[in-house]
Amino acid sequence: MMRRPANSATDGGSNQSSVNQVEKSMQTASSGVDSSSQDWKANLKLPPADTRYMTEDVTATKGNEFEDYFLKRELLMGIYEKGFERPSPIQEESIPIALTGSDILARAKNGTGKTAAFCIPALEKIDQDNNVIQAVILVPTRELALQTSQVCKELGKHLKIQVMVTTGGTSLKDDIMRLYQPVHLLVGTPGRILDLAKRGICVLKDCSMLVMDEADKLLSPEFQPSVEQLIRFLPGNRQVLMFSATFPVTVKDFKDRFLQKPYVINLMDELTLKGITQFYAFVEERQKLHCLNTLFSKLQINQSIIFCNSVNRVELLAKKITELGYSCFYIHAKMLQDHRNRVFHDFRNGACRNLVCTDLFTRGIDIQAVNVVINFDFPKNSETYLHRVGRSGRYGHLGLAVNLITYEDRFNLYKIEQELGTEIKQIPPHIDQGIYCR
């Protein structure tokens, strides 16, 4: 069963009244829809329906429809043409609250529809006739920025909203030129947006919405100073939406200082995704490659992501996998940005079956065809583990995570199981395809 979101005791009353108003008006609306207003749906170019099995992480909804939220028709057209049929639980909880203008602190699992949960209200609230930056979406990695801006463009393709993406590692001059043109929605990494704001080129005084995706990472020591400086360029009455799968103490401190009576959404009864089966194989370091070769030959892999703990090991392993005769790309933070973009784009489009990477790729990257994640090197902490295995089983589909465990990893394995309240079982001689391929 899907629970109501947990509200903090201090602001529960105001939160609840705004929810009641939203739900009352939705009920009134859905009862008074006339049939002629449905004709526009007949002309939509819908993608084929996704008939794969889905877990209750995305199916246990209250039964809302996107039309219940009074969204612009052009936005609804983009939503349906993107293949979204009805809101997932995190979208049901977030969209109506975000539309009221409330700040939100939302915790939901990877791969349950978080991106659309903030992109839809952002696109809805933008006035396309006002050529100023009205919403900023902050993300921690360049790949996630590209992916998120693409989702915004696809959802808003029938709207006249200008979406721009900006990250480090790309030409500052190009960004400056682009910002002399109209931009309504800016997606990017904190350092680059702060740089442009300090130069007076990226003007944020009319930006009424700030979204922080992967908020826990954005509030790590690497990013937090930039994020806090950036907020000072926004108006005092801005709306802040924070989304993440994990919320460490730093998030609470930031929330207390920068959010106004936030509405708290928590859809995290348990941490790991329901559709992901997790196994470990106990191996010596020198056996790892042989073990990986065996997995490749036995598993039904649509696409796989293989994680290593260092840049050097990523390149070395990718070379070895290619020598074994399997198609393989690799990606890490020390590569040139153009090269990274090309690898990400090609892997996403199915040009290659396997991708070896560092933790650069753990945050929010959404590639639907990935059904197997392999930890060639076991991660050091539960947060990294959670984000890695969350690359498979996207949007309620099934996935498989296989961990290659050495003698040195055994304590880490136990610790991560305890912290996540999950069970990682020993790999059986034969893995039933039904558990990750339905």
From TrEMBL:
Domain Helicase ATP-binding residue range list: 95-265
Record field: compositional bias (Polar residues): 7-40
Localization per Swiss-Prot or TrEMBL: Cytoplasm, P-body
Residue ranges of domain DEAD-box RNA helicase Q in the record: 64-92
Enzyme class, broadest EC rank: hydrolase
GO molecular-function term, one example from the UniProt record: hydrolase activity
Enzyme Commission code(s) on record: 3.6.4.13
Any Pfam family the entry gives: Helicase_C
Signal peptide limits: none
Placement of sequence motif Q motif: 64-92
Spans annotated as Disordered: 1-42
Catalytic reaction list: ATP + H2O = ADP + phosphate + H(+)
Nucleotide-binding found in the keyword field: yes
Domain Helicase C-terminal: 275-435
GO cellular component annotations of the record: P-body
Keywords annotated in UniProt: ATP-binding, Cytoplasm, Helicase, Hydrolase, Nucleotide-binding, RNA-binding
Family listed: Belongs to the DEAD box helicase family. DDX6/DHH1 subfamily.
Function according to Swiss-Prot or TrEMBL: ATP-dependent RNA helicase involved in mRNA turnover, and more specifically in mRNA decapping.
Protein name: RNA helicase
